[in-house]
Amino acid sequence: MSRTTISEVALNGFAASSSYDKHRPSYPADAVDQLLYALKVAGVQGARVADLAAGTGKFTELLAARPEQYSIVAIEPHEDMKAELERKSLKGVNVVMGTADDMSEIADASFDALIASQVRSQSFTVQRMVLTGRSVVSLVTLPLHSIVNVVRAKSLVSRFANRPALEEIHRVLKPTRLLGMIWNIEDYNAPRDWDMTTSWESQIRNLTWTLNDDLPRFRHEKWRKCFDDQLASTPLSLAFADPLFSLPLGEGSVKFETWLNKDDIWKRYKTLSQIAVLGREKLEEVKKEFFNAIDHKDVVQDEQGRVAVHGHTFFAWTSSIPEQPLRNGG
After folding, report:
1. Which residues contact 72 (CB under 8 A, 6 or more apart)?
2. Are 51 and 63 a contacting pair, CB within 8 Å?
3. Are 299 and 39 in contact (CB under 8 A)?
4. Do 174 and 238 meet the contact criterion of CB atoms below 8 Å apart?
5. Which of 205, 227, 24, 230 is nearest to 117 (CA)?
6. What is the 3-state secondary structure of 259-275?
């Protein structure tokens, strides 16, 4: 399989990997607990875990800290990101080069689970959790130390929202094991139909949507389409549909709130890839619009001058469908 090259946008947007690592902290524990519980990997010792498109290792760090002592393979296509992760020397983590549609260094049926993640926020106050979808049975909040056995496929949605990527993910998963996906989505980077908590976040979301570089992201919700398209057919082709992952997807969501000073919110906003690649003049225009919104007199600040940033940690999961019964009529 020929290796996919990552786009110039991704290469340039994430070139300052140490800054990316600093301004994109980790995930709220409750959301991670619930996802890994849904993936049926909680409490499994020595789980074989892959972190696909691991970036600088935000999620990898959570896995490496587990008492279950995972065997972790972190897969990352960006040289600087990979180097930043390797510098952390995380216990039990092997870092390799690869993309969602080309994990040629990985053998078939290697992993117990696979997760795609995207980091966004920190200092979470969990407000509410909602779980829906396939095979959901009153999931309970578990302590963080009960999480395990994950193969993670992190990334820009564009890295795995296609059939070749699903085929490659299916290949490296053990039969019937699960793919998980998780995103921290601030209100200002959310889909258009999501309710906004504040007017300033609504204004900045409108700004975000004007910065279109033609790459699919969570807010475009095209990641769902690659799963739905597994069953795309005409009346004549339905019998030949060849789904790799089960539908409907299981889904969950945790609201979060984090208080940051305005400059730190700007620094976090600036790590969004479509903003990170802007030229100096355009970036200054965006910065001016950003601060016009967040400096409005109606924006609530605490005694330290911090502003509440709101959003959701959204996660989804699906089981891989074994090949033999489907293709051989078994």
Report:
1. 49, 50, 51, 60, 63, 64, 90, 92, 93, 94
2. yes
3. no
4. no
5. 24
6. EECHHHHHHHHHCCHHH
Per-residue confidence (pLDDT) for residue 11, from 0 to 100 = 45
φ/ψ bin of 280: left (φ > 0), alpha (ψ from -120 to 50), beta (otherwise) = alpha
Residue 22's pLDDT is 56
- Check if the beta carbon of residue 165 is closer than 8 Å to that of residue 128: no
DSSP 197-214: SSHHHHHHHHHHHH---S
For the chain, the domains span 8-124+154-186+215-257+313-320
Number of other CB atoms surrounding residue 286 within 10 Å: 20
H-helix segments, the chain: 8-13, 17-23, 29-38, 58-64, 79-87, 163-172, 199-210, 223-228, 262-270, 273-276, 280-294, 323-328
> Tens of pLDDT along 129-168?
344 333 333 233 222 222 223 333 344 454 566 888 999 9
For residue 314, report the phi and psi dihedrals to the nearest 5 degrees.
Answer: -110, 135
Fold assignment, 8-124+154-186+215-257+313-320:
Rossmann fold (3.40.50)
Structure tokens at 276: 């990170």
Tens digit of each residue's pLDDT (9 = 90 or more) over 8-18: 444 444 444 45
Cα–Cα dist 37/57, whole Å: 21
DSSP calls for 60-111 = HHHHHT-TT--EEEEE---HHHHHHHHHT--TTEEEE--BTTB-TTS-TT-E
CA neighbor of 127 nearest in space, from 261, 315, 313, 265: 313
Closest CA to 31 of 119, 133, 92, 137: 119
Task: Report how far residue 87's alpha carbon sits from residue 189's, in angstroms, rounded to the nearest whole number.
Answer: 30
Q: Is cis: bond before 216, omega within 30 of 0? A: no
